[in-house]
Design a protein that fits this description.
The chain contains 8 helices and 32 strands. By secondary structure, the chain is α+β, with helices and mostly antiparallel strands.
């Protein structure tokens, strides 16, 4: 082994830097209950002495529902101010900051039933089996207090893949449900918008979200988008676009590409224990992450089957013979100089219509046979195309207008085309749309301000493998220096309450061998 060029570099398959993810809550996910003091006759009235000892203030509980005055909810919530021993600690204020949940134990309060503090998650089984909520705060004055908490069942399911330890060390990931209009966005690195209803937030909070992106924040949109949704100011100003004239011929299996970002996503997917086969994932719709071109050359994640984009081609199948040779026609011995009458089929005229949203743009074209001698013209079929792109009724002195020969690649409005001639007699020519025709399973914009943007479809329920893929996508959206590896990346670890334990970072050793 050579003594030179020996290097050991650390690598990891998931980020380990601390980061926070915000999930804006829609109105139907926000719960607000009026609170009142526990009264004689209430369940647990005589069983709250331990909580009361810590509190010294009244224990509160949700008011009796008006439709069922003789009973409280199936499961009971009890709200306490445990200051100064817990949570807020020592501020001397009556600020209710602790929740206990009597789910099963009839007022014995097992460890799974509390105490829960601000931003903790708790199981409130009266709503539906397994429902989880995040305790946000208690608002109002002494005679009109209200409990505010958010439905976080899906949020916690999405968090599961990110809870993976690395050699016994917890990854420092926090998921938080927020009221977007009041949240401090700089506290987060990633914001995840779920459901089409969230488009309202994208429109109303556009300026704040743009500022968030300019500071390096990223967005993940889990939505099922339609053409009409792109009237939204935020979507219309992003690199996402709806390709309304694309027809899907079937999506098939999902596959990664050879792009560096797709390789990174594959690494993160494996890092959260993703399987060898990529799970099914509904796209955000007929959405492209490359603006109007719809040509993601190296998509983050796409389907093997393709769109039918024949409508994007520009062609003329019935060109007419030119009466005279116009100025600007290519030099050729196959027809006389300018002003003469060309032989049949040697010089034809027509037009190409390019699709442009719901309309088309039309350009005049000249289909010319090329040759340096009469003999060559008689025995060969070499043709060229001129396009009057500036619409000045002339092809003269315009290099960008041609001549183009078969196989040339042309670009129009960001879309790439290949030139084909349909016959040797000048009757037809076609510009065939080329580029990636795979529908993106995850739309990815790596330069959304100083951050990143991704979009894919929303589902009320995600399978475990799909959750792994979404967790990998969240990692992909983090800043580059969140990944422990070679180069300029950085990492930090915090180990709490460990005794006589050793923690190791995974690494790969790249050794160069030489012959002596």
């Amino acid at each position: 082994m050579s003594g030179d060029d020996l290097a050991v570099s650390g690598t990891a398959d998931i980020p380990i830097q601390e980061f926070s993810v915000a999930f804006p809550i829609l109105p139907d996910q926000k719960q607000v209950d009026s609170l009142g003091a526990v009264e004689p006759g209430d369940r647990c009235h005589n069983s709250l002495r331990e909580i009361n000892k810590d509190s010294g203030t009244d224990i509160l509980r949700p008011e009796k529902p008006s439709g069922n005055p003789d009973d409280l909810y199936n499961a009971r919530l009890y709200i306490a101010d445990t200051d100064p021993r817990f949570a807020g600690g020592g501020n001397g204020l009556t600020d209710y900051d602790t929740v206990y949940v009597d789910n099963k134990t009839r007022c014995q309060f097992s460890p799974s039933e509390g105490p829960f503090y601000i931003n903790d998650y708790f199981n409130y089984s009266n709503r539906n089996a397994g429902a989880r909520f995040q305790f946000k705060n208690v608002t109002g004055s002494a005679d009109s207090r209200k409990l505010v908490y958010h439905n976080a069942s899906q949020v916690l399911r999405l968090r599961q893949p990110t809870r993976r330890q690395m050699n016994g060390v917890d990854t420092l990931v926090s998921f938080d449900t927020v009221n977007l209009t009041k949240a401090s966005l700089p506290d987060y690195q990633l914001i995840v918008f779920r459901r089409d209803d969230s488009l309202t937030y994208l429109r109303d909070e556009k300026e704040r979200l743009n500022a968030f992106a300019d500071r390096g924040g990223s967005l993940l949109l889990l939505m099922n988008l339609e053409d009409s949704d792109f009237s939204n100011d935020f979507l219309s100003s992003s690199d996402l676009s709806y390709i309304s004239d694309m027809d899907n011929t079937g999506r098939g299996d999902i596959e990664f590409s050879d792009s560096s970002s797709s390789r990174s996503l594959r690494q993160f997917f494996k890092g959260v224990s993703g399987s060898a086969s990529v799970p099914g994932l509904e796209p955000a719709g007929k959405v492209s992450s490359t603006g109007d071109s719809g040509t993601a050359e190296q998509p983050l994640l796409s389907y093997k089957n393709t769109y039918d984009r024949d409508d994007w081609n520009a062609s003329d199948f019935s060109m007419d013979d030119a009466d005279t040779v116009p100025n600007g026609a290519p030099e050729s011995e196959c027809y006389p100089p300018s002003g003469g009458s060309p032989p049949d089929g040697s010089l034809t005229e027509g037009s190409l219509q390019f699709p442009d949203d719901d309309d088309t743009e039309t350009y005049e074209i000249l289909n010319a046979e090329l040759g340096g001698s009469d003999n060559f013209c008689q025995n060969n079929d070499l043709r060229s195309l001129m396009i009057d792109l500036d619409d000045d009724e002339s092809f003269e002195s315009q290099e960008r207008e041609g001549p183009f020969v078969e196989g040339d690649v042309l670009e129009w409005q960001g879309r790439t085309y290949n030139l084909e001639f349909l016959s040797s007699d000048g009757e037809g020519a076609e510009l065939v749309f080329i580029g990636s025709t795979s529908q993106e399973a995850i739309n990815y914009v790596p330069s959304y301000g100083e951050g990143k943007l991704a979009a894919t479809g929303y589902s009320a329920e995600y399978g475990s493998e799909t959750r792994n893929l979404l967790a990998a996508t969240m990692y992909q959206l983090l800043p580059e220096n969140s990944v422990f590896g070679s180069g300029s990346s950085s990492a930090s670890l915090e180990v709490l309450s460990s005794t006589n334990q050793s923690f190791y970072m995974p690494y790969t050793a790249n050794l160069r061998w030489s012959r002596g």
